[in-house]
């Protein structure tokens, strides 16, 4: 494998990691506040559909982005209503949301575009275009680091850079602001937060709303950045991989970056080499596809560094017990 | 929250949830420019209006009884087994191995062997998540989700690289040998003189499903294990205090649950396709969640809600065939049923309580 191939794989890894990173951070906000969210997949799918549909109809990718976020937020609202206001089972609500998105996107897509559940392909301003970072051309002449900068870091769509910036932003919000402290507290011990006179319900709704925005970005990137249209079931399990990455990252923002980059790299490698020949053993493509899930189970089993979820995760908060 | 009478809790609340789900779905049909009443009529007549429709409705219902029971058994122990999809897929592998490689003299023996294989494979696929939950505290929901994906990859590998006959293109096994053919409902009923459409996939597995309902009823309410399982589900500390071993209960419950999900394979793999194809479970594992929620985790409830979902699936297929409404409408209805009878259960209960409980107080 030569240097250029390696760079191409890294470049595609970064692209593929972006939706995972958005979704993983989305889950991070929600779960750190004590709301389990297995509906990341559904929210991404909904956002992907509405962003593609709106971008196509208006010709503006920005309106598409807003519509995608709105679509994802509606599902977030349902999740909040079920798991915060009515103290229902958060996991069941997540399952319902995934199915709702999977059914609605096809139902609406067929009725609007009559293309078997797809949207027409997007072009021009209806898509996010690649941005060349400054001096990318000039850097090509610098050995080793130059091509790395020009091939891997430069030339992505805006949302890729936004996703990368979301990591320090999430870290700052969670660990350096009052809101973040309260958000983490509400996921560990909501009764203590309540005693301090801070609204548990308000905080949790805020977390679920942030989760909705980030899932919206993830979905919009899938349909208008990575791809060029909405395709039925286009999230293809990415929401669950993001969930796996979240556990892998032990609910921490910087670890989330490395976990999603790792999973992105796995996907990029398995795209490029359907069956990976390691010399002594040939790994079938199916193994590469299952690897993120297998790794997550190993991590969950606690054999390689224990992952401890937020303490109050999954439990509805009941005042005055 | 006001206490509802038991009958209201068991019957009225899920029914109201179901009605809400239907009203919303029909509004969506209206919004996409179709007549909801026409759609509903087509669905009902397509699913229940002929023995042909019934043949499919009962076939789907058989699948959903198994997966619904699987979810319900786990629910009783407060475990959420979301891995029915993977367990049923592995059950399919068990059935395929038994049917392909052992020459059976008669279908009855083949059925017994396939039932055992499907159950064992399903149970084993649930064993690892169960062990991890019981011993290492890994969340069962996440591990079972992961195991669904791992099962899909595993099956893909086995079908493409091992079991696919030479020269075949699609990832599937060869057709099972003739003696393992299960008699279809049409063949059975016609032989006793009752006219029933031939060529529909409902088969003798339906009886196995009914037996599974009885088995689960006895297990949960009439055995010591069932008592321990329910006690564990109500309160883990209390169960442990009463001498119930939490590790044992978690593992046994999940294995029974996995076995029930795996049993689905004798219906769809052995009864219908008569070979193992990739993705043969078709989401039935997830529908089990809706079925169990709607049926309040009771075998009788599950029987009825499985029938309802079976009819929905067949009706949805008819819709997709004759109108421009896609069969994905069924997924929307299914999602709304899960939402209203599961996640928003408390909201529906509050609504029912407002109607039922308040007037009674005024009288008193």
Automatic annotation (TrEMBL), chain A:
The chain crosses the membrane at residues 12-30, 65-84, 91-113, 157-174, 205-228, 286-305. It comes from the Bacteria. It is a multi-pass membrane protein. Pfam families: BPD_transp_2. GO terms for cellular component: plasma membrane. It is found in: Cell membrane. Its main location: membrane. GO terms for molecular function: transmembrane transporter activity. This is Nucleoside ABC transporter membrane protein. The lineage of its organism: Bacteria, Pseudomonadati, Pseudomonadota, Alphaproteobacteria, Rhodobacterales.
Automatic annotation (TrEMBL), chain B:
It is found in: Cell membrane. InterPro entries: ABC_transp_permease. The keyword Transmembrane applies. GO terms for molecular function: transmembrane transporter activity. The keyword Isomerase does not apply. Keywords: Cell membrane, Membrane, Transmembrane, Transmembrane helix. It is a multi-pass membrane protein. CDD domains: TM_PBP1_transp_TpRbsC_like. The chain crosses the membrane at residues 12-33, 53-75, 87-104, 110-128, 140-160, 202-220, 240-264, 276-293, 300-317, 329-352. GO terms for cellular component: plasma membrane. This is Nucleoside ABC transporter membrane protein. It comes from Litoreibacter albidus.
């Amino acid at each position: 494998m030569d240097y250029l191939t390696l760079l191409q794989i890294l470049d595609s890894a970064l692209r593929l990691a972006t939706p995972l990173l958005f979704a993983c951070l989305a889950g991070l906000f929600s779960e750190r506040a004590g709301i389990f969210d297995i509906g990341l997949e559904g929210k991404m799918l909904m956002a992907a559909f509405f962003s593609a549909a709106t971008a196509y109809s208006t010709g503006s990718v920005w309106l598409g982005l807003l519509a995608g976020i709105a679509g994802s937020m509606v599902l977030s609202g349902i999740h909040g209503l079920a798991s915060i206001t009515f103290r229902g089972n958060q996991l069941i609500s997540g399952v319902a949301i995934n199915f709702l998105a999977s059914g609605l996107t096809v139902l609406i897509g067929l009725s609007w575009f009559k293309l078997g559940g797809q949207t027409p392909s997007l072009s021009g301003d209806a898509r996010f275009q690649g941005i060349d970072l400054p001096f990318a051309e000039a850097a090509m002449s610098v050995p080793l680091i130059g091509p790395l900068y020009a091939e891997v870091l430069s030339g992505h769509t805006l949302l890729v850079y936004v996703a990368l910036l979301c990591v320090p932003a999430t870290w700052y919000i969670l660990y350096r602001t009052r809101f973040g402290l309260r958000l983490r507290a509400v996921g560990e011990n909501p009764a203590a937060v309540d005693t301090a006179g801070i609204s548990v319900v308000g905080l949790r709704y805020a977390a679920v709303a942030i989760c909705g925005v980030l899932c919206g970005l993830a979905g919009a990137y899938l349909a208008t950045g990575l791809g060029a249209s909405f395709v039925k079931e286009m999230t293809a399990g990415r929401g669950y991989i993001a969930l796996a990455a979240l556990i892998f990252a032990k609910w921490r923002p910087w670890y989330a970056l490395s976990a999603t980059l790792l999973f992105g790299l796995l996907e990029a490698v398995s795209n490029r080499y359907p069956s990976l020949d390691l010399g002594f053993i040939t790994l079938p493509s199916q193994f590469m596809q299952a690897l993120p899930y297998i790794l997550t189970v190993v991590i969950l089993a606690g054999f390689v560094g224990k992952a401890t979820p937020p303490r109050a995760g999954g439990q509805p908060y009941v005042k005055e017990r | 929250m006001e206490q509802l009478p038991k009958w209201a809790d068991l019957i009225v609340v899920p029914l109201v949830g179901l009605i809400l789900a239907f009203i919303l779905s029909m509004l969506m049909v209206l919004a996409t420019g179709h007549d909801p009443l026409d759609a509903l009529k087509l669905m009902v007549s397509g699913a229940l209006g002929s023995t042909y429709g019934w043949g499919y409705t009962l076939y789907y219902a058989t699948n959903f009884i198994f997966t619904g029971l699987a979810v319900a058994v786990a629910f009783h122990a407060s475990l959420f087994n979301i891995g029915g999809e993977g367990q049923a897929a592995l059950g399919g592998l068990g059935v395929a191995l038994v049917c392909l490689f052992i020459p059976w003299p008669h279908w009855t023996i083949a059925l017994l062997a396939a039932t055992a294989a499907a159950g064992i494979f399903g149970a084993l696929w649930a064993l690892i998540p169960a062990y991890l939950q019981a011993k290492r505290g890994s969340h069962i929901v996440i591990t079972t989700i992961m195991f669904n994906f791992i099962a899909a990859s595993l099956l893909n590998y086995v079908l493409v690289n091992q079991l696919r006959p030479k020269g075949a293109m699609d990832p599937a096994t060869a057709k099972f040998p003739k003696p393992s053919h299960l008699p279809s409902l049409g063949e059975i009923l016609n032989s006793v003189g009752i006219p029933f459409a031939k060529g529909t996939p409902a088969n003798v597995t339906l009886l196995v499903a009914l037996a599974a309902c009885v088995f689960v009823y006895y297990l949960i309410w009439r055995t010591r294990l069932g008592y321990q399982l329910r006690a564990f589900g109500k309160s883990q500390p209390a169960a442990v205090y009463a001498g119930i071993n939490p590790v044992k209960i978690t593992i046994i419950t999940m294995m029974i649950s996995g076995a029930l999900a795996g049993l689905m394979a004798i219906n769809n793999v052995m009864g219908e396709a008569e070979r193992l194809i990739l993705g043969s479970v078709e989401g039935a594992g997830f529908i089990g969640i809706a079925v169990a929620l709607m049926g309040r985790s009771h075998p009788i409830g599950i029987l009825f809600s499985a029938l309802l979902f079976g009819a929905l699936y067949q009706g949805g297929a008819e819709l997709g065939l004759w109108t421009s409404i896609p069969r994905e409408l069924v997924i929307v209805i299914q999602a709304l049923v899960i939402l209203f009878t599961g996640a928003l259960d408390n909201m529906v209960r509050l609504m029912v309580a407002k109607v039922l409980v308040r007037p009674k107080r005024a009288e008193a």
